[in-house]
Amino acid sequence: MTTTARMPAPPFDRRLIADFHAGLLPPSVADHIRRHLDDDPHAVDVLAALARVRTELAALGREPDPDVPPHIEARLDRLVDELTDS
After folding, report:
1. What is the chain's pLDDT, residue by residue, as a tens digit (86 residues)?
2. Are 77 and 13 in contact (CB under 8 A)?
3. Radius of gyration over alpha carbons of the chain, in Å?
4. Cα-to-chain-centroid distance, residue 66
5. CB 52 within 8 A of CB 31
6. Smallest Cα–Cα separation from 11: which of 49, 40, 48?
7. Model pTM?
8. For position 44, what pLDDT does the model report?
9. CA-to-CA distance for 5 and 18, rounded, in angstroms?
10. Residue 43: CB partners within 8 Å, gap ≥ 6?
11. Nearest-10 crossing angle of helices 70-84, 41-59
């Protein structure tokens, strides 16, 4: 018997979008999300906010630290929510 993995559906969770932005998802999931981004304006906003942060960090000459402490991650999540809420 063959099982088919369920793909996420819009609206996408912001953590999933962050993993997508960071290139951490399997190619099949990343391709699925890329095809459905137009169906999730909030995800597009989150990606734009993440891209701005990455650009600002690059301007400082640093790459983001992949091992973010949980309390900092929570603060960043709240900031992304504030920036993307309409």
Report:
1. 444 578 999 999 999 999 999 999 999 999 999 999 999 999 999 999 999 988 888 888 766 667 878 888 888 888 888 877 74
2. no
3. 14
4. 14
5. no
6. 40
7. 0.65
8. 95
9. 21
10. 10, 11, 12, 14, 17, 33, 37
11. 120
Question: Which spans in the chain are helix H?
Answer: 14-22, 27-36, 41-59, 70-84
Using CB atoms within 10 Å of the CB of residue 78, give its burial: 0 to 12 exposed, 13 to 18 middle, 19+ buried: exposed
Burial category of 46 from C-beta neighbours within 10 Å (exposed 0-12, middle 13-18, buried 19 and up): buried
Residue with tokens 């906003």: 45
